[in-house]
Design a protein that fits this description.
Layout: H1 12-22, H2 25-48, E1 55-56, H3 61-65, H4 73-77, H5 79-82, H6 85-88, H7 93-116, E2 119-120, H8 134-140, H9 150-169, H10 173-192, H11 198-210, H12 212-217
Parallel strand pairs: 1-2
Length: 249
């Protein structure tokens, strides 16, 4: 006999998140990977062939305070794992598609800004480092396409969505704090590895946040059985073949 699914039980969030992670898992992995590659095609094209005169972003006092820290490259590269978390927690196919459309709109907006207003960070003299991967970063991702920082824009959009899902699933505060710290590490790393300046980071944060309210407002809604939450409660879904609950849509 299946145990009763009480939406108020303390460990309900575990079942909720596990259900979300395993739904359409292969599609999420393939889709996120393909989406990232398509974005990079446009990104590197504009990076190597800017349309107009490239403006140099000014340094602020805070830029001078942030020291060069090549070890922060780990956090910098972790974005490409982090961006998969929010789509990975979408439960239904419709919700996944709508989320992808909002992220696509965010990325197209950023690329359009790079097209209309190409920017770069000022030339910097960095101390030599043999930290793994840093030479690759400098050789592939040059100092262009600076403002807004798409690293920060995508990261903050992802962070807010993860927070939204965790909060409504009733996840413990430690997971929500870890999510916030991961985002903060990514944002700080853009300054610490000297790929962006403070103005790039601020502009990227504003760009990402601009897409949060509409993406949370215009998205698939829950049915009447889970009207208290804008997602789908596991308790409202039929029993699945693996002892969990099968999703709708």
């Amino acid at each position: 006999m299946q145990p009763s699914q009480d939406p108020h039980r303390p460990d309900r969030w575990k079942a909720e998140l596990w259900l979300r992670m395993r739904r359409h898992f292969l599609l999420k992995v393939i889709g996120t990977t393909a989406f990232t590659w398509v974005f990079f095609i446009g990104y590197f094209h504009l990076l190597r062939e800017p349309v107009g005169t490239v403006a140099v972003m000014p340094l602020t006092a805070l830029d001078h305070l942030v020291a060069f820290q090549p070890q922060m490259l780990v956090a910098y590269f972790s974005l490409w794992l982090y961006v998969g978390v929010a789509p990975g927690l979408q439960l239904t196919f419709k919700a996944l598609v709508v989320y992808a459309l909002w992220v696509g709109a965010l990325c197209l907006t950023g690329l359009s800004i790079f097209y209309l207003w190409p920017t770069r960070i000022p030339p910097l003299t960095l101390p030599p480092t043999d930290f793994p991967g840093f030479a690759i970063l400098q050789g592939v991702d040059a100092a262009g396409n600076a403002c807004p920082s798409m690293h920060v824009a995508i990261a903050i959009f992802t962070a807010v969505w993860i927070e939204h899902i965790l909060r409504h699933a009733g996840a413990p505060i430690v997971l929500r704090v870890l999510n916030a710290l991961w985002f903060a590490a990514i944002a700080y790393s853009t300054l610490a590895v000297k790929q962006h300046v403070v103005l790039d980071v601020l502009a990227g944060a504003l760009l990402g946040l601009a897409f949060v309210p509409p993406s949370l407002r215009w998205r698939p809604r829950a049915g009447a059985s889970s009207a208290a939450w804008s997602g789908y409660h596991e308790s409202s879904l039929p029993v699945g073949r693996f002892g969990g609950r099968a999703g709708r849509g």
